[in-house]
Design brief:
The complex is a heterodimer of chains A (296) and B (478). With 296 residues, chain A is α/β, with parallel strands linked by helices. The longest helix of chain A is centred in the middle third of the chain and has 13 residues. In chain B, the strands form 3 sheets. An 8-stranded mixed beta sheet of chain B has the order 10-9-8-11-12-15-13-14, with helices on both faces. Chain B has a 5-stranded antiparallel beta sheet with strand order 2-1-7-5-6, with helices on one face. The chains are: A alpha/beta (296), B alpha/beta (478). At the A-B interface, strand 1, strand 6, helix 3, helix 4 and helix 8 of A face helix 4, helix 5, helix 6, helix 14 and strand 13 of B.
Chain lengths: 296, 478
């Protein structure tokens, strides 16, 4: 197992994902002799996990069952421990495409945060690319590096504990793409430009506030970036439902047999298969600003 | 072509490259061919001068349709204090403020003035320009620039660019798949190097190309196709290196049931004139039989004919007939070779699919997604993602319901993506006035091991007697 390569069977040391039900999952570090408590009972690693196929149904001690899934960056995003606010799959998908990431891409990222986007980037640039990720918080930087190792992607990433606005990404002239999710991205644009290949590349800045966006766009224009474009994306979920709608009874159009007869109400109803929106939805995550560094 | 001596070469345009031309928000995919006239945005020009330049270079179209690299942009002169007004209360919008006529402008164009110079003339001949506010002036200049500029940027093709191009130019060809929806598909499908992905699409090859791009030449892609042959026009525009095509297989869906039932026969038969029929392959092979028979001198009628006319002993005619028959034979041989190639490809694709261990499934077509999904999901290994795109929501509702009924999938989600672009300018930041109305719908999920007992949802109730027995034995074992 790794986050960048599928495998068929669960082995000791793997990270597996226990699927308990709709929107309920938990990561598990597979170890001989270990046990994991779930609301359906205990999952015994040696018996239920090791040697089993990913995707199998596991019956827990209390009789209920769960599925064990192969980790993916998308599943990880939903269950990872939050050390910061994270990016979700909708934004990640657009960032990946708009930055033109693919196997072999070299990417610079700051801040690493909880590693949500990092894992998605690693998956996309493997096996020949590299991610240089910068995090100014020491413990977060260390935790991220630890997780990358555990997830068997350490060889594809370099974590640096420094301030990108002051010291840059630690590399110059190598990146095909740069991603910024920091409080003051305009202060890192010069470093982004330096980190990128001389022949050009793509940059993206993610900011929750429009004022940050304005300052960043100005900085991008000043540094000669082209194709500056700001957008936002949101995901709308449609919950599939079968609903029953009662039909109104407008009565019979023929006169009643006797005046004292009361009309018999009909209980007709119609079954519809449709979707309803959830009560709330994510209304805003952040603005995504993209630009192209022109070839010199 | 001169090499600059640095490692630039892979960033430079070569003859034969597939590129994308860009002006503003308009894109067009073309292939660089010297001395070939290209039309783009009502302009004709030759791409010859693009060869050797870096990708991303902007060119001006000059006289004779030649491309000239544009000099680096000089920053818009904000140094000179422009005369500007404060608001538009006294500006009449009577269409009479521009003193240059259409003919005047045409004359300027013919004189060879570039876009920037024409815009300058327009400003000088506008009676209201200096009364406009600074913002209005900027907006005016931007608008005129867009209309009169004749610059072209030459870009390296990518999923992003081609997806935006298709969506802007020919959305009907890609089932109105919007680029952000495509982005979701690639990520939700966990498309990555080294995996085995099945693709069923009728989006001119755009989706297939996007998948191939994300695989980087590693792993394998099987294109399932309806009808006679796979459509791959869009894939060409990506300009993939040739070794990427080694990872691409194709499989006609008309053989899916046979493959699933184990009755698909892809073995080579003895090569004879009826080789095509033995394969049970396409009908075009049987069509060739009479031709082949002719070539071998089989059919009695033609033989008689040729014998009859040959009695007229015209050596020139005889030679012609000989040549014709030779050509027929060659064609017949080529057909046999082609059939064998086709059989080999089918066999290879069948081999890839047979194990039912694909890592991902991507569907985006004009076909009803339900049967497509239910048929192809059988080729996926457990714990693997699938993504189905549909222009419409209802067919996906059906997919969702059927999947929940039959089991074998979790985390089913019906979603659509909403996108909004912004204009960001000092004191003028706001969302764009026009917005995309819709980009299609996605159904995504993850496969799980199929149960012998059909399950509807994740069980919360214990399977009573069996569970109790289990628990007892476990505690005794400690």
């Amino acid at each position: 197992m790794s986050f960048v390569e599928y495998s068929e069977f669960i082995q000791e040391g793997d990270v597996a994902i226990i699927f308990l039900g709709h929107d309920s999952m938990m990561p598990v570090k597979v170890q001989q002799g270990a046990q994991t408590q779930t609301r359906y009972g205990v999952v015994r690693h040696s018996k239920d996990l090791i040697g089993q196929r990913f995707g199998t149904k596991v019956t827990c001690s209390k009789g209920g069952w769960v599925y064990v899934l192969h980790p993916t960056p998308e599943l990880w995003t939903l269950i990872l421990p939050h050390r910061t606010q994270i990016l979700y799959t909708t934004d990640i998908a657009n960032i990946t495409m708009m930055l033109e990431l693919k196997p072999g891409s070299v990417v610079c990222e700051s801040g690493t945060g909880s590693g949500s986007l990092s894992h998605a980037i690693l998956r996309t640039i493997a096996p020949t690319g590299h991610l240089h990720t910068v995090e100014f918080h020491q413990q977060r930087a260390e935790k991220a590096a630890e997780e990358f190792r555990e997830h068997r992607v350490g060889h594809l990433v370099t974590v640096r504990n420094q301030d990108v606005c002051k010291e840059g990404f630690g590399v110059t002239g190598v990146a095909d793409a740069v991603f910024l999710d920091i409080p003051s991205p305009w202060e890192a644009i010069r470093h982004a430009k330096n980190g990128m290949k001389r022949q050009g590349g793509r940059v993206c800045s993610f900011s929750p506030c429009i004022e940050q966006v304005q300052k960043t766009c100005e900085a991008l224009a000043d540094e000669g970036f082209e194709e500056i474009s700001t957008l936002e994306v949101l995901l709308r979920v449609h919950d599939v439902r079968s609903i029953t709608l009662p039909l109104p009874d407008f009565g019979s159009d023929r006169p009643l047999e006797t005046p004292t007869d009361t009309p018999v109400p009909s209980n007709a109803s119609v079954l519809c298969k449709t979707t309803t929106p959830p009560r709330d939805m994510a209304g805003h995550t952040g603005y995504l600003t993209f630009a192209t560094k022109p070839s010199v | 072509m001169a090499d600059n001596g640095d490692d630039d070469s892979q960033h430079r345009v070569n003859e034969g490259d597939y590129v994308v031309l860009k002006r503003g928000d308009i894109y067009k995919a073309v292939q660089i061919q010297k001395k070939k006239k290209t039309v783009f945005e009502k302009q004709w020009f030759f791409l010859d001068n693009a060869v050797g330049e870096l990708y991303g270079t902007t060119f001006e179209v000059v006289t004779d349709g030649k491309l000239q690299p544009r000099k680096p942009k000089h920053i818009e002169s904000s140094a000179d204090a422009k005369e500007a007004g404060t608001d538009n209360r006294n500006i009449q919008d009577d269409g009479k403020s521009q003193k240059l006529t259409r003919d005047d402008i045409e004359t300027l164009k013919e004189q060879g003035l570039n876009g920037q110079e024409i815009v300058q003339h327009l400003i000088e001949n506008s009676t209201t320009f200096r009364d406009k506010t600074e913002f209005a002036q900027e907006k005016y200049i931007k608008k005129k620039k867009k209309k009169y500029e004749n610059s072209v940027m030459v870009l390296r093709p990518s999923c992003r660019i081609l997806a935006m191009m298709y969506h802007g130019r020919e959305p009907g060809k890609i089932c109105h798949l919007r680029y952000d929806t495509l982005a979701q598909m690639l990520t939700l499908g966990n498309i990555h190097a080294g995996s085995k992905v099945l693709v069923f699409e009728t989006c001119a090859g755009l989706v297939l190309g996007a998948v191939i791009e994300r695989m980087g030449g590693y792993g394998s892609v099987v294109q399932m196709y309806p009808g006679g042959g796979p459509v791959r026009a869009g894939v060409e525009s990506f300009g993939f290196p040739s070794h990427f095509h080694d990872t691409l297989h194709e499989f006609p869906i008309c053989h899916v049931n046979a493959l699933l039932a184990g009755t698909l026969d892809t073995e080579a038969k003895d090569i004879d004139t009826d080789a095509g029929q033995a394969n049970g392959d396409k009908s075009n092979l049987t069509k060739t039989d009479p031709e082949k028979a002719e070539g071998k001198g089989g059919s009695p009628d033609t033989e008689d004919q040729s014998m009859e006319t040959s009695t007229s002993t015209d050596p020139a005619e005889d030679k012609e007939r000989e040549e014709r028959e030779k050509r027929r034979e060659i064609r017949a041989q080529e057909k046999i070779v082609k059939t064998e190639e086709k059989r080999k490809k089918l066999s290879a694709a069948a081999g890839v699919l047979k194990g039912r261990n694909a890592d991902g499934l991507v569907i985006a077509s004009r076909f009803h997604p339900c049967p497509v999904l239910l048929g192809l999901i059988k080729f996926l290994a457990p714990s693997r993602p699938f993504v189905v795109y549909s222009q419409y929501k209802e067919p996906l509702i059906e997919c969702y319901s059927k999947l929940r009924e039959q089991g074998g999938a979790v985390s089913l989600r019906l979603t659509d993506s909403w996108i909004r672009h912004y204009q960001v300018l000092p004191n003028r930041t706001h969302p764009m006035l026009l917005m995309s109305g819709g980009g299609g719908y996605l159904l995504s999920g993850t496969t799980v091991a199929t149960d012998t007992t059909k399950a509807k949802t994740c069980s919360t109730t214990a399977e009573e007697p069996a569970a109790k027995r289990l628990k007892l034995t476990e505690t005794t074992e400690g």
